[in-house]
Design brief:
Elements (H helix, E strand, L loop, with lengths): L34 H7 L4 H9 L1 H4 L2 H31 L5 H28 L9 H10 L1
Helix pairs in contact: 1-4, 1-5, 2-4, 4-5, 4-6
């Protein structure tokens, strides 16, 4: 048997590239949500409405700002009406059958608020500037300023 020495490779001097080079990602041009989607999401609770009024890309968009302010106004009006009806009930609770009357008043108020809330969500998702009475004028003035 002959002892043959395998041929030696020359020393490795060239280092291959570590991998493909990719261009850096492009900066985000938008907020990720369409204006209509952000305006509709503002009505889900008061939390998104407050967030949209604080965060930079959304507080510059007048449609989102309008619907966020209108959502907060609707929440305040709802709270004030419910507190007012409750206080009135406690004042007049001695009158017979007043409890049944206030039950229907409270249900009517909540039904009106829910219908207004749903209409606002639908109109906001369509991109419309749907204004509620009293609240909408204030919201529009604030959003356009």
């Amino acid at each position: 048997m002959s002892d043959q020495i395998p041929p030696q490779q020359p020393p490795y001097t060239d280092v291959p590239p570590s991998g493909p080079t990719y261009p850096p990602p492009a900066p985000a041009a938008s907020s990720g949500l369409s204006d209509n989607a952000a305006a509709a999401i503002a009505y889900l609770t008061i939390i998104p409405a407050i967030i949209f009024l604080i965060l930079e890309p959304y507080n510059k968009i007048s449609l989102v700002k309008f619907h966020s302010i209108q959502c907060l106004g609707l929440a305040v009006v709802s709270f004030v009406l419910q507190v007012g009806v409750t206080i009135l009930f406690f004042i007049l609770h001695a009158i017979p059958l007043i409890g049944i009357l206030f039950l229907f008043v409270r249900l009517a108020i909540m039904l009106c608020i829910v219908v207004a809330w749903l209409m606002c969500i639908i109109k906001a998702s369509q991109g419309a500037w749907f204004k509620l009475p009293f609240i909408g004028d204030f919201a529009e003035k604030q959003a356009r300023s």
